[in-house]
Every structure is written in structure tokens, then in C-alpha cells.
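I would like you to sit down with the pair of lines that follows and say whether C-alpha cells and residues agree.
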Amino acid sequence: MKLTSIKLCNFRSFYGKTPEIILAGTETYNTTIIHGNNGSGKTSLLNAFTWVLYEKFSAAFASVEQLVNKRAIAEAKPGQVVECWVELEWEHEGKRYNVKRVCRVYKKETDVNVTKTELRMQVAGDDGRWYFPPQQPEDVIAQILPVSLHQYFFFDGERIEEIVRSDKKAEIAEATKIFLGVEVINRSISHLKEAKKTLENELKAIGDSEIKQLLKQQDNLEQEIERISKRQTEIKQESEYQETFKKETSNLLRELSAAKELQERRQELEKQKASSQENLRESKEAIKKAISARGYTVLISETTAQFREIINDLKQRGELTSGISREFVNELLDSQRCICGADLRDGSHSHKNVRKILDKAGSSAVQETAIRMSAQVDEIDKQAVSFWEEVDREQTRINQLRQTISQIEGELDNIQERLRKDANEEISSLQKRLDEIEEKIRDLILEQGANQQQIATLKTELEVLRKQIAKQKLNEDRQALAQRRIAATQDAIERFTEVRNRQEKQFRWQLEKRVQEIFSEISFTPYIPKISDKYELTLVENTAGLEMPVAASTGENQILSLSFIASIIDMVRDWSEKKKILLVPDSSTFPIVMDSPFGSLDEISRRQIAKTIPKLANQLIVLVSKTQWRGEVEEEMTERIGREYVLTYYSSKPDCEQDSIKLGGERYALVRQSPNEFEYTEIVEVNRER
């Protein structure tokens, strides 16, 4: 998807029809820079892209209901229609696309009536003529760049760090399914479940009464499991929200100077408690592993003692000796010659003497077995001793940790009580709010645990039912066929589910690796980005071989988010490359449109990002203020500029301070005095000599 141009009409601060903004997209000059002061319309321009494609807006886009330019409405007569639209053109897989989203306002005497937006699309054929596609425009756009991914290609740089927030992880996880192919697998699983249900209904119709009853019970159990599982998802989302709310409330409490010391102590104690609880879990797990691996050794001590008694008894009776074996004596008698050369023919004196030895000799096989088993029994006894030592050691550690946790909880309770009774009403109010949040989290955890147990019980019952159904004698060929089909469908569902789980795991690993590479290239810190199985983005540092979480700054979170976006784009490229059928040059081309990407970054980070972001996508459109552009950003990005524009803001303020920017040796106005009582923005193209 290579954007070629965009035009606006009466969209927010842009009055009337704007000139066509041609967007750079060549390999060498792939960057379009759009300059503008704060309030001049940069964010409006960013949202023009997302509005025309998806009817979506960024979080910072205020008063989204006021899309239509105020001057255009004011100049219209009552009963007159005012149009607001954005028109966008792009190329993808050898085709040219044009979309136009229109919003109309009907002006009345005292207010305005806003109509529902319309989206129109045309596609250029090989003959150069434009035609309407057979699909809906929204479906065509979704196939090229799905709506769930748009935030990674059109984003507000000043709020980009929000991507690392915990409440965004579900959204991230859902978006990744688009280019993993997981959606196709999910649809396959869904269709298979529907087919299985159809086959089971068929079996109900042709089966005997017992099978019908069992299938009805199975259906009820599956519905109950699905209901509880859905509730588990709701609990998980609510818990994540409450945890975020708890963190924000704790931070508010810490910001109050009167409670800062107590709150910091509480947070330190909570970290200690979490660490102790993790150590407690590890000790319990160690005991479980010890019992699983060596627990049997303490249960067979009587058996090993009996074995030794048997061996000693055999030795005392001469049945287990360590001398010459029976097999060796028999070989001598068969050969009729001793190793000393004496004749051992039957009836001779030597033969009789050797024959006597045979009666006393033991079997070599028995001796070897007895020796080997004795060694194994000795090892079992040693392991039993080692087992008790480890259990005692871990049990002592568990007792110590429990005592430590109890002491920490006591001190935490004391701090909470002091904050509840604090004379400062704001402090006590925040603590009460924390108490309520903790209570909600506790209730959710309890409900979640009860649901897990109930799901496990229901699944056990369901498995028993499935076995009962499988064991029923089916008297008709149709019954047998339906059973085989149901079994094959269930097997396919399980295999598809396993494929999906493996794909997600592999993708998450690849994504984390790419994020780490890009973050290392931009940031000078030694921190390492991590992506959890819940798609939580965090930074860690390696201290003495241990990974410890880092309290990232806003700037570091911005760099982390940019690294994540770059990695997502790489994945989308790979996905697009794999799914294309024809070798079309631009099928893996995707743009980035970013507003104010250099917000709170230091000089080094600004330079590294300015150097890196033109490489992130095939096409880059950056909206920047004068202060964000100058210096190291201008130095690094100027050589990649293919197109450049300035947003000139006309202020209706009588004493407005005018401003300008120097680009390519010429000066362009950023702020001017409006010639009328309205404020509006004009788009001016910059001409650079190369």
C-alpha cells in the first residue's frame, strides 16, 4: 500500500478545497515532511487519513463531532448544505485506488444537522478507466490493511508510549492474529465446530434413545463450559483494569507529600512480599519435583531390606559365591581337558575332582544380576536419604518465607490503617479507594479460581460422556459413519488448535527478537525489551545474570513503542510477501504516518530515531513542529525528503504573534494574521533545490 496523494475539503481547520498533497514514495526519497505549529492542523491531517479509511480518530483528537470547518458553516445560509470530505489515493499490487469519505451538514436557523458519512471507492483498471469494485469499500480496505492494525501505521508520536500500557495488550494480541494467519485458523475451527454440531444433530436423529440422551447431556456441558470460559475472559479483562486503576491510585497517593514516605514503604513491602511469594512457590515446586522423582525411595525401604536378607541367605547357603562359575566348570568337563592340561575324561580321577567343584560353584548370570541389583538398591537408599535432606531443607525455607510474608503483611496492614485514619481527607479517601479496588480484585480472583475448578470438573464429566458415546453399540451403518465423522472433526479441531498455539508462540518470539534489535539500534541504554505471553511490553536489565524490571521513562517508552511498531511493520511485510500470488513489486509496501514523533526525547534518541524511522517503512510521512524539526532531526532526515509542505495557520487573534520557518534557503510562514474573523489553515508546498 503506497499512498500517492490526499486532498481535504472543509475538514476541521482546512477551509475549502486544499491543494492536492502529493506524497513521496520513491526508494531514495521516501519521506514526506509536513511542518506546522501546535494547533495548526497536524493532528487533523493525521486523522484525515484514519477517518477516510476507517472512520477512526486518534486519542488526542478533540471534539470529533466538529469535523466540518467552522468558517464554511458560518458562511452558509440557513437550509444550505456544507460538505466536508477527504479524498485519498494509493497504489497496491499493481492497482490504483481512490476513496472519498463525505460528511454533510445541513445548516438550520439555530443549529446544524450532521448526516451519516458516505464512503466511495473507485479502482483503476488496466485500461486506465475507473470503476466501482464488486466488494464493499470497507472490505477492500480491510484486505489491504485491516482496521485492527491501522494504529501501528497512523499514530500520534506524543502518545505513542500508550502502546506499552497493560490495558493495550489484548488489543495487540488481537491485531497480531491478522498477519499470523490465525484468523483463518480460527474460522476453520469455528466451521469445524459447526460441522461437528451438525453431525451430532444427525446422530441424534438416527441414534437410539440412550445416545440421544448422552448427546443432550454433552451439549449442555459444552454450553456451560463455554459460558464459564466467556466469564473467565471478562474476569481477566476486569482484573487487568482494576490492576491499572490500583497502580494509578497508588501513584496519586505517593504524589501527596504527607503520604509519600508511607506509600513508598508500602510499595517496597509489596515488592518484598511478591518476591517472597515467588520464592515460596519455587520451594513448593521443588518439593513436588523431589516427590515426583525420588519419593518412591522412602516407600520401599522394607523391600530393599528384604532383598539384602535374601542375598545374605543365598551367600550363607553357598548358592551365591564369588568364585568359579558353573558355566566355566561345565565348559572344562565338556572339553575333557583342564586348563592345566590334565585329562578330564569321564571316569578319571581328575574328572571326579572337577565334578565336585561343580556342586559348589554358582551361576555367573545369577552373580552378575545380584551384584547389579545390590548396587541399584544401595543407590535407592542413598536417594532416600538425599530426598529427606532436600525436603527438610525446602520445608525449613517454606516456614521462614511464611513467617517473612506474615511480618510483611502485618506491616502493610499497619500502613493501610494509618492511611485510612489519616487526618488528611484526601489521603484517607485514596486509601479507601485502594481498599475497594483490593476487595474487587480479591473477589475476581476467587471467582476465577472457582470457575477454573468448575471448568475442570465439567471437562472431566464431558470426557466421560464422550467415552460412553464412543462405547455405544451402533446398529446402523449411518450411526457408525456419523461417529467416525464426529471423531475426525474433533481430531481436526484439536490439531488446528495446536497449530494456532504454536504459530502464536513462534510469532511472539520473532517479534520480541526484532523489537530487541531495533531498540538496541536506537537507544543507548543497556535495557532489553521483553514481550510476555500476554503481549505485555516491558524493559529489563541484566544484573549479575538476573533479569530485573526497569522503571522506564516516558522517552524510553516512546523508543520502546517505536521499536514495537517497526517490528509489527516487518511482520506485516513478511505476511504480505507470503500471501501474494503474483510477483507484484509493491505488494509488501506499507506507509507510516506519524505526528510529532520526537516529543520528550533527548538529543541522542532524537538523532537515532530520525536516522532510523525512514528505514522502518517504504514510505514515511512525518508531521513536525519547528522545534521538533530543527537540529539533529533536520540533519538526519533532509537527504531522504521527497516532498515537503508547510501548514500556515491564519489566526483570528488581533495581536497574534507571527512565526515562520526557513527551509531550503527560503522562509515560509507558520502563523499569520487572518484577514477575517475566522481561523483556518493553508497548505504550502516547499521547493528544495537538489
Remarks:
- The chain has a mean pLDDT of 81.
- The first helix runs from residue 42 to 54.
